[in-house]
Amino acid sequence: MDNVELAKNIISLYFSGLLIVGFLYLAFYLLSKHLDSLITYQFPIGYVLLILSVVLFIPLMCGFIRAFCKRYLQEEDEISLNFWYYGLFFTLLYLTIRTVLSYFPSTNLIVTFIILPFAFAMINRYL
Amino acid sequence: MLTKLVKHLTLTISMICMVFFNLLAPYYLTNIFPKKGNKMTLGIQYNYMIASDVGVDLQQINQTGFKVIRINFFYDSNPTSIISNRTFLFYRVVQYYNFKIALIVGPNDVEFLDEYLSSWGKYISYVQVLNEPELLTSWAPGAFYLDEEIFTLARTIVEKVRAYNSAYNSTIKLYTNFSPAFLIRANLVKFFANFTDFLGLDVYMDSGLKFMPFIYNMLQKISGKRIIITEFGISEKDDVRQADFIISGLNFFKNFGIEECWIFYWEGEGYGIKDRLAQEKIKEWIMLNSPRT
């Protein structure tokens, strides 16, 4: 593998991970921004929406994105269509890492947007 | 086939573990990575109606290092009644110390609030608008006040305190406290956040302590206000267990970054800390962890 090929692989790996992490970051950012109005709006409908978002909508979308990454960016032949299952795994993994990272505010964004995309892409490759 | 099964089993187990991790880890992580340099002011709930000697009690409370005294609303229009005498005695002694007084105003106290404030308002720093409004019951246990009833009561209290503040150039601050049950009546938090200066969270039992970061963050997110701990304690006959629980809780709150915590309560069976090991331990804790002012 020459240097150009290696660089292409690394960039492809990074962007496939960044798509997943970026989506999760944006989804939870929006959710936290509207959390107060969501759960005070016509509860228990607000709580139902909150739970549905965290355990259904976000994982489904995340699972779809990871399948897309696996198929097109990493050129895999076979992909699992079990979007929710794998998406939930990535969602929980993301939340767990963010919980730990919240205790290191100075490194929070660096780890989220530089290290996590590679880690998620690597995990995605073996799932 | 077997590999696939093992893979899915591993993923499922790891997901279950991550759910528990996200719920419980903040408590342990807070103790591992504390917020450095945080100093916490302590307060105490005090019932002067059952006190054997108010003067001695306040002296002890002061020596222990408490800066805030939270009291119930006791009022009688008859100036010679026991309630009036006790209240007079309490405020007479309390002015010798530098305590901040937090007054709890309940639904039945609203009509006497004007008279109370005109007599004792100058000694009061905070007025608590109702107590745990999300669990407030009217005529029977479980008969919760409706939202509209709570809004009316709260508005009346706020108007009376604001009227007193402007008439006497006073700076009484308003707050209210919530138990974790606010999660089922989150609209009340939003309502109280409109006029209070800060909010309080009541924490009891070990489970309350473990889930406190999650509940605290939720309360702060909904209200956008500064949150303090307005009730913290344990009903425990074993002195050592009570002291250990309170000290571990105070250490946790300090590490979490809480600025103020009020202990529940000074004297009485179960929760009381007076003349028990907890009082000694809290005194030592305050010397090490509270601001000197």
Can you walk through the features of this model?
The complex is a heterodimer of chains A (127) and B (293). Chain A is mainly α. Chain A has one domain (3-126). Helices cover 82% and strands 0% of the residues of chain A. Chain B is α/β, with parallel strands linked by helices. In chain B, strands 1-2-3-4-5-6-7-8 form an 8-stranded parallel β-barrel, surrounded by 5 helices. In chain B, strand 1, helix 2 (54-64) and strand 2 (68-72) form a beta-alpha-beta unit. The mean pLDDT of chain B is 92. Classes of the chains: A mainly alpha (127), B alpha/beta (293).
- Contiguous uncertain segments of 5+ residues of chain A: none
Largest sheet of chain B: 8 strands, parallel, barrel
CATH-level-4 superfamily name of chain B: Glycosidases
Head-to-tail CA distance between termini of chain B? 69 Å
CATH architecture tag of chain B: Alpha-Beta Barrel
Radius of gyration of chain B: 21 Å
Shape of chain A: globular
Annotation, overall tally of beta strands of chain A: 0
Task: Please work out how many helical segments of chain A DSSP would assign.
Answer: 5
In sequence order, what are the helices and strands of chain A, one letter per element? HHHHH
How much helix, percentage-wise, in residues of chain B?
40-55%
What percent of residues of chain B are in strands? 15-25%
SS content category of chain B: alpha/beta
Helix and strand string of chain B, N-terminal first?
HEHEHEHEHEHEHHEHEH
Largest interface: A-B, 19 and 24 residues
Oligomer: heterodimer
Low-confidence stretches of chain B: none
Question: Rough shape of chain B?
Answer: globular
The tally of structural domains of chain A comes to 1
List keywords for this structure.
heterodimer; A: 127 residues; mainly alpha; 5 helices; B: 293 residues; alpha/beta; TIM Barrel; eight-stranded parallel barrel; 10 helices; 48% helix; globular
